Amino acid sequence: MDAPVIGFSKLSKKEKVNWLVDTYFNSDAAAQNLITRYWNEDAKLQELHDGFSENTITNYYLPFGLAPNFLIDDHLVTIPMAIEESSVVAAASKAAKFWLTRGGFKTSIKSTIKSGQVHIMYHGASSEMEAFYAFAKAYLLQSIESINASMKKRGGGLLDIELVNKTSALDGYYQLHATFETKDAMGANFINTTLEQLASSLREKASQFDGFSSDAPEVIMSILSNYVPQCLVNVSVSCKIDEIGTINGVSGANFARKFTRAVDIATVEPYRAVTHNKGIMNGIDAVVIATGNDFRAVEAGVHAYAARDGQYRSLTRARVENDIFTFEADFPLALGTVGGLTSLHPLSKLAMQILGNPSAQDLMKVTAVAGLAQNFAALHSLVTTGIQAGHMKMHLVNMLEQIGANDTEKAQLKKAFTDKTPSFSGLREALELMRDK
Ligand code: MEV
Predict the structure, then answer these.
(1) For atom 4 of ligand 1, which residue has the closest CA?
(2) 114 strand-pairing partners
(3) Maximum pairwise Cα distance, the chain
(4) Domain regions of the chain by residue span
(5) How far apart are CA 370 and CA 93, in angstroms?
(6) What is 114-224's CATH number?
């Protein structure tokens, strides 16, 4: 085993790169060049990016694309998307175009409440914990007043705290469950600071309370929850069956029937539901990343919501009633448009500008639309032609790159494969033939 590297974080960026290249690449100049080729010439911009994280050695690009023509609540919106997967932006654009002439996307915010918990253990009688909470509550609330002040000014802040008895799930386990409104901020720092203050005030009050028959309550941890079932946006599309038209040779009525069946399958079958929801997240994550929000938080929250009744299910719903096709979803999305990376990353700022500097609620709506659109596009293909034809065509560019075709060869191969589904072996064969000639 190699010796561990000591003090790595203290090395300069160049020293870090040298260490890496010496340790993992046999001092190969090619590795060194690859890393430095991705440095930005603008030193200030590079410094900004280096500062986002730790031990940074270079940049890792993601394509930043646009899906135009989204009619959302009667306004035209161009959605910025940062994603590496081919076909996603094209699929979003296709769904936008489809719904543009069929009434567009309708959205509404159902609620914007976030929560966090102080997790506590107490092994005495529950009645003692309740008596302690009654004794401490006013002080707890008062102790976070100064932290709360600026958020309160913006119309948000701590909404409520509640003692929750969780002892039936885990011996001795209680929570201080706190709810928050964080307006345009994602609010992680505000929530965590508030929770840690509540925890510290709780410890202080516990030392003054003489009603415990057992050791005083112990705070295990204080942290926001990324489960946000009360921070919900509804998004829907709807049109008459007649308006659907023929899709890839399938009649509107048949399309709607198969489409709703596909959603029903994802509602009852977890194997399908995971892939179905993954497709939704293609759209949601791309907007979340483009706007500098935390996609891991959104992913965790969305999937937990998909399993809220104990089984993992489709996030979307579809129905045909009175000859009207409706497709909709409620997505739990805790997003911010101020603070954090949203106001630091120049491209996130650009994404926000493209969206008209939205409020957090407006960003929830746009993100939800991207998710529903993506699912619509995926099912649109799946229940008609299948996804491979379109997908592989979009993937062709990557495939041509991978088989080492030059620009002229790429152009010729693209032409040759216009009507065929490309495979690596087929492309290689065609390339060899071309080169033999
Ligand atoms: C691929 O990234 C996403 C899909 O698999 C989604 C789906 O199957 O619904 C096409």
Answers:
(1) 279
(2) 180
(3) 93
(4) 8-50, 65-110+232-387, 114-224, 395-436
(5) 10
(6) 3.30.70.420
Closest to 305 measured CA to CA, from 331, 272, 279: 331
391 noted as active-site residue: yes
pLDDT in tens, 109-167: 999 999 999 999 999 999 999 999 999 999 999 999 999 999 999 999 999 999 999 99
Using the CB atoms, write b or e for 93-112: b if 16+ within 10 Å.
bbbbebbeeeebbbbebeeb
CATH topology of domain 65-110+232-387: 3.90.770
Residue 106: which of 224, 234, 294, 285 has the closest Cα?
A: 234
Query: Whole-prediction pTM value?
Result: 0.92
Tokens of 228: 């946000």
Contact present, 132 and 388 (Cβ < 8 Å): no
To test the pocket of ligand 1, the residue of 258, 272, 316, 382 to mutate (highest count of ligand atoms within 8 Å of its CB) is 382
**Among 267, 278, 282, 388, residue to substitute to test ligand 1 (most atoms within 8 Å of Cβ):** 278
